[in-house]
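To fix ideas, we now present one chain and its tokenised fold:
***
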Amino acid sequence: MKLLYEGKAKQLFEVENEQEIYVHYKNSATAFNGVKKEEFEKKGVLNNTISALIFEHLEKNGVRTHFIRKVNDTDQICQKVTIIPLEVITRNLVAGSMAKKYGLEEGKKLSQPVFELSYKNDELGDPLINDDHAIALDIVTQEELAEIKQQTHRINTVLKDLFLQAGLVLVDFKIEFGKTHTGDIILADEISPDTCRLWEVNTGEKLDKDRFRRDLGSVMEAYEEVLGRLEHAKS
């Protein structure tokens, strides 16, 4: 298959059906805009499996995604979309950069979810932008941004409930959207411990990529714990 794109965590390949794409999940882990890198055995398997499970759950709850089917342990077939160059971030609790920027205690519950936008551009370091920037830079129209916000709110509601059933708190997460060949905006990319902060509901133990970012160790054990809890919640 022809390689179309290689990112930090995935490779995208061309398939015979021009409306589909073949996604391979890599074992690579990166942080701080690629400054920190490491390979973890089974990471591709875990993120592919977790993402597939979550996409299927979202579809059942009325959220359109690019996911079509899982092919094997590390690969899946998805709808081919044109990615909108925005990272859409939702924060339910204070953590990470929000705690540092505003001098807030990590773990503080927010009175309402915080919606943030980041311009997806590696050369610029994915800078935060506001709604007006996104529209003025012709990344999205006002109507498209409103739809993205509406979908994100729904995704947050569904995911918080799913993770809570698994004994996990969804602290924050980032997602991406893409346009289909018909112009519909749907959820794309992945949803995994790489893209979500997940804390154990009773102990507050971090079960996500922060274990890699902060050198906490047991990175894949945490990802395995997330998958096991999700599978149990769904059974």
